[in-house]
Amino acid sequence: MEKIHQLKQWLSESRSIVFFGGAGVSTESGIPDFRSVDGLYRQRFEYPPETIISHSFYLRNPEYFFRFYREKMLPLGFEPNVTHKVLARWEQEGKLLAVVTQNIDGLHQKAGSQRVYELHGSVLRNYCTVCGKFHSAEFVKEAAGVPRCSCGGIVKPDVVLYEEQLDGNTIENSVAAIAQADLLIVAGTSLTVYPAAGLIDYYRGNRLVLINRDETPYDSRANLVLHRSLGDIFRQL
Ligand code: CNA
Hints:
By secondary structure, this protein is an alpha/beta fold. The protein is built from ten helices and nine strands. Carba-nicotinamide-adenine-dinucleotide binds next to helix 2 and helix 10.
């Protein structure tokens, strides 16, 4: 059977779909994935992105951190694409349990998805590290240098940096959803960032679908692999 037909058949038979995604879900909205960021970095930045977006670097050199963050990691003004929209529709239809995402752009919620577990946080939430006051992404974008609250504290994006722990509740919810899924779609992720990538090991079914332009370390474990662009696939679903 052609792969897309196989996928459509499984979708029609599934009642508890979970979608596990990464940066590739948003490239067709115009937001580069990590690899693209890395490519751009080579021309402009002195350190690897993994170093800049680490907790110790943020503490050591907040000016540099925020310059990189604003230029490369703060995607404002982008719109959900067909993949985000189809996932939101499946949730409304009662077929999709949850979206588990490594993305920090808030586009699943913008498309209408309600149960979204953001493993790496969101650029849309920013808190003063002293008084805890909430600040918008626009506030961080427009601040000159290190964004500061009216109390003087640094405003830190609620984004999980390297060396920082993932939120315990978010992991628990993600694991519970994945363990309950009858169909797990893993898409738009290189599956190289841990512990996030390891969460798909909690899937117990035999309908693990992997949709990604490039090969991933999990390809051999999937029941169906489509090396295609997500937009091409989701436009047909
Ligand atoms: P990644 O390591 O950059 O991998 C992305 C994968 O998606 C690659 O393997 C590509 O082949 C694939 N891909 C790209 N576009 C498409 C497409 N249209 N259709 C199908 N496949 C596609 O990103 P990961 O998410 O795996 O993990 C690394 C980091 C990147 C995560 O922690 C993210 O938070 C972080 N990130 C997030 C965003 C965002 O929020 N939009 C953007 C850039 C980086």
